[in-house]
Specification:
alpha/beta, 3-stranded antiparallel β-sheet, 212 residues, Ybab, Chain: A
Length: 212
């Protein structure tokens, strides 16, 4: 299964979540940047407000694309201890990289929200959306942080990801919706015909369009 682009992936996810259409307590959260494009389509189809949930991966030394963990906007840190040991990431490296990503989270929050405050999640049905997952570290950190805000239900909605990652997320979230779990998984972008970079400006435009 391949998706034309993030918009199509979001529309297909929305169909899988049709039971929540027009429910009054739903909030959709997109993980920037690309996840916000997917989340916008879900929020539009469900008639729900859209916000960002900013979580940044902690990249391995000499390979920033390999996630050895992730940090959420409230400071929640999730590390893959086996992978940290395998790539020989020192405690000092992990700490400095975590602080660097926290600063980037603060920058993005200011850029995306401006003077607006975050949507309240307590006692609401929260749908967390990304454009795909590999290790799942970013989404897992987000899930653990969001749960501390006591939502009524936390749903993870992902177009594509490996089965073992989905299984791990199912242990943490109330519900996981994934459209495609390929037996052979290389990278999220391999399952999209168009997987271009999403700009900060696009994220801001989509957020403003779904302010309810």
């Amino acid at each position: 299964m391949h998706f034309r682009d993030r918009r199509e992936a979001g529309m297909l996810l929305a169909r899988a979540l049709a039971d929540l259409r027009e429910a009054k307590d739903v909030v959709v959260l997109g993980i920037p940047r690309g996840g916000v494009v997917v989340a916008y389509e879900v929020a539009t189809a469900l008639g729900a407000p859209l916000d960002v949930y900013i979580t940044r991966k902690i990249g391995a030394p000499f390979n920033s694309e390999l996630a050895i963990g992730a940090v959420a906007s409230d400071g929640t840190l999730v590390l893959d201890d086996d992978l940290v040991a395998r790539v020989r990431a020192s405690a000092d490296y992990v700490q400095s990289e975590t602080e660097r990503q926290r600063r980037e989270i603060e920058r993005r929050i200011k850029a995306y929200r401006g003077a607006s405050s975050a949507l309240q999640l307590k006692d609401r049905t929260v749908i967390l959306v990304d454009d795909g997952v590999a290790t799942g570290a970013t989404v897992l950190a987000s899930v653990r942080a969001i749960k501390q805000q006591e939502p009524k239900e936390l749903i993870v909605a992902i177009p594509v990801g490996p089965a073992d990652t989905m299984h791990a997320l199912e242990q943490e979230a109330d519900r996981v919706v994934c459209l495609h779990t390929p037996e052979v998984f290389w990278a999220v972008g391999a399952f999209y015909e168009v997987f271009d970079q999403t700009s900060d400006e696009e994220v801001i435009r989509l957020l403003q369009a779904r302010q309810i």
